[in-house]
Every structure is written in C-alpha cells, then in structure tokens.
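Subject: mismatched residue count in predicted assembly?

I count 532 residues in my input, but I want to confirm that the predicted structure covers every chain. Input:
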Amino acid sequence: MDVKTVQDVAKFAHLALTEEELERYSKDLGDILSYFELLNEAPECSERGVNPIKVEDITREDVPKVEYDADELLRDMDTYERYVRGPRLS
Amino acid sequence: MSMDTTLADLKKINAKYQMFHAMTDDTVPGDAKFLFSAKDNLTSKDMETCAGSRILEGYHPVFDATCIEKLRNAGGKLIGKTNMDEFGFGTFSTNSGFEIPRNPYDLGRACGGSSGGSACAASVIEDHMSLGVSTGGSICCPASFCGVYGIAPTYGRVSRQGLIDYGNSLDKIGVISQKATDLKKFMEIIAGKDEKDPTSMVQPEFKTAYRKMGSVAIPKEGIEGLSKEVDRVFKAAVETLKSMGVDVEYVDMHSLKYAMPAYYVLATSEASTNLARYVGMRYGHQEGDHSLKFDDYFTEVRSKYFGDEAKRRILLGTYARMAGFGGRHYAKAREVRQVVINDYKHILENHDAVLAPTMPFTAPKFDDISKMSALESYKADYLTVPANIAGTPHLSVPCGYDCDGMPVGMQFVADHWNEDVLFSIAEDWEKQFDLKRPEVSI
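Triage response: the counts match. Full output below for your records.
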C-alpha cells in the first residue's frame, strides 16, 4: 500500500501518523494485502453468513426501568453540570 | 495452594510473572468457594478494565460482565484482571499497553496471546481458573504455550454482555485451567442464554454427559509447517490416542489455507468499527484539548493512546471496508467462512472431532518475537483461526514437552454446540497424561 493511501485511510480512521509510521505501515500493509490475494483462489460459496451460527431477532419486553444510576455512570466521565464534556463541533 | 496462601502471595507472584494488570487487595478469601481471574477485556465493577489499551486507562465499569456476575453468584472471588494484547490484537501477549506476562516454564519466553495473562495465571496458581476470550485463537494458543487446558466454546454459548468487543461475529468467552475437569465445571456456570446478548439466545441445551470419543480426523494441511519438536511430540500423542481406543484418519481440508486471510479481513473490519467509539470521551483518557474541533480532538487522543498493532489493524480494517477492496475481499472472506464451516461439518459427519497441533511451534523467546514482521506473526495463527471463523468449539490439551521442556498443545474441534465430546476426550486424556507443572518459586 503506498504512503498516500495509508495517509488517506488514517485520516478516515482518525489517526495522525508520523513519517516513520507511514513508511512502516505502508510496507506492512502492502505485504499483508499481497498475501490476502490468496483469497482469490478460494472456492466459491453461495452463502455469506454474517455470523457463524444462525441467529434470530429476539427482543426484550418493552418495560421502562432504570438499569444504572446516572450519577454512577457519570462518575469517571469528564462532565459539566451532569453533561458529558466533549470537543467543539465547529 | 490454599486460597489464603494464594491471596497472601498474589503480589509476589505477579511481580515475577506479570499476569495481572489489576489485583484484589484482599488478603483473605472470606466466604469464597473458589478464586478466579478474568481477561481484562471483561468488565468488572470493582477493578479497572482496560483491555490492554492505554486509551481505556482509568475506566472503572459500573457493571460486571455476565460471565463474571455468574461466577460471583456461584461463590467465586475475582482476584485479578489478566494482561493481554491490546483489545486482543496479538499472538504472544506482547502487544500490550501495560505489562507483558512471562511464560511460567521460561521467563524469557512469551505466554501466547491474546489471553496470555489468563493462561499464565492458570499455569502458575494451583486450583485456579481464568476466563479467556478467543477471537482467532486467543484461548487455545496461550493454553498451549503455558501447558494448561483451555476451551473456546461454540460462538453464542456464553453471553458476550460486558465483553469489550474485538470482532462481534468471532468473539467467544471460555475457560483456562490446569485441570480438564475444571473446564466443564466452570463452563456449566457461565454458559446459557442471556437476553442482553441475542446471539446467546438461540443455543440448545448445554450437554455435559460423558460421550466417549470414537474417532478423530487429522487434516493433512493441519500438520504442515510444524517445528520438528512439535511434529515429534504430536506424532507421539496421536499414538497415545490410538492406544486409548480412538480411531485416527488423515483427511484433506483444503479450505484451511484460506482461513487465515479471511479471518484477518473479517476481524479487522469488525475491529475498526468497534474501536471507533474510543475518542477520549466518556471512558478512559479524556484530557485532550477541548478547544480543538471534534475531528482533531478525536485524532489527537486516538493517535496518542492506541498502540502500534491497534493502529495497524484499524488501518487494515478501515481499508478492507472501503469501496473497491471491500467489495472483493470482505465478501470473499464471508464466503470462505461458510466453506470452512461446511468442510468441518462434512468431516464431522464421520468423526467426533478434528485434531491438529494447537500451534506450529512452542512458546517463542521475546527476542525472536521482536524480529517477526506483522505478517509472520499473523501466519502463526493458521492452526487456530479456522475453528474460530467457523464458530465451532475447540479445546487445547497439553500433549507433551519439547527438548527444552516447553509445553506442546493439541487442539480438538467439534461441531457447533458439541462441547460435551470435547470435555470427554480432555478428561480421558488427563487421566493418562503426566502434566509437568512449572517450578514456581517466589
């Protein structure tokens, strides 16, 4: 994978890489993706399951309840007046 | 070793082997019926939970993972959270943001990954059970390297509620112990339906009655690329199995060679989406510069606290899901998963289990691991990955020792939901196997 592609993917994944990391991941990912070409030789199959077993949609009873205390959930979070603090949006 | 002795010596033991990231300060067991530890990607409300990642440093969950809750309810006392590769990303437990566990048989060697701390604890501490998690082999690999028994059950058998996900369609919680009989005993406690994890709700009854293993199939592709010592020990173990009345047949399973690339496409795709939630808000490190715009803030925190292998897998998974590449390889990887499942089921129509060595070599030295490329490390998983993408239960038993005294493991794979046949062969094996415990001095 060329350095420019690594840089583009990293930006998409919210990662800032150093020059050394860009070079290293470029080589590593290139080697790995070349090996993955082996998949092109694999036999075809009409089934493409997302899970290895059959799963069913199962829903819980819609009963309102307080599972966790809000203050306990906020205990280790960076908060301001019981709101979670975060960076600015614009 | 009594529970009192274990607790009294816990910090000294950990100073030598580095199996625990967090430990209890209790020095007496109270009314506990047994002690246990858990991999650090399982939430525990009284101990920090980091999943081996510095980005989660300082995270104290408000709830127990279902499996931990069940063990506590059964009288278990959680004594420690075990060191692991960051988010499960590794074969040797050397990709940790914290401490790296040391092999009980040789401190200069790795414990295997990614549940390395769990296997180390199970090997070093007498009468100890540790919870592990397997995505691509992370229970059986360290069990093999540390000379203990380990089971990764069928996908969906144990609730994943409270597990910090690596790959949702692959993650399985299981048990590691010195005793084969403990695997069944503790799996009975943690298995079962949990409405908080829909994938656990379709499971049939958990069977535990003894069912003698009549025959095993050894894929010819599963005995290629072994070290000379693993090959020697495994062949001797197969002869022992025959003497126990188990029929052995060598079969073809061509799909095995495609499992490794398919696994890394699926696992990193899922991991890259799961790890998108770690942005320096709500849990773990949150001390970024709030004057930055959100994109820059997230990037700053993630770049600072994710480790090398986590970044590599996020990049790989993000790329695998992108248009173009994803259309080819992601879809193909899902096809390969089904081909592997079909091949296992075809073989298991005539056999009780599929057998191969657990790992192609014994626990490597840290120096040798540091010289391995990422791809070489991924390739080391080729024997454990197939059962993991298939979601089939698999169990590693210690089957001998190499010329340096390092343990060798072999892995049995059964059909979905047939853990009972694995428990049975492990218990039969244990009766005749001379397990050499490591010399533990503190």
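Residues 3-256+334-432 of chain B form a domain with the Amidase signature (AS) enzymes fold (CATH 3.90.1300.10). Marking this ticket as 'not a bug'.
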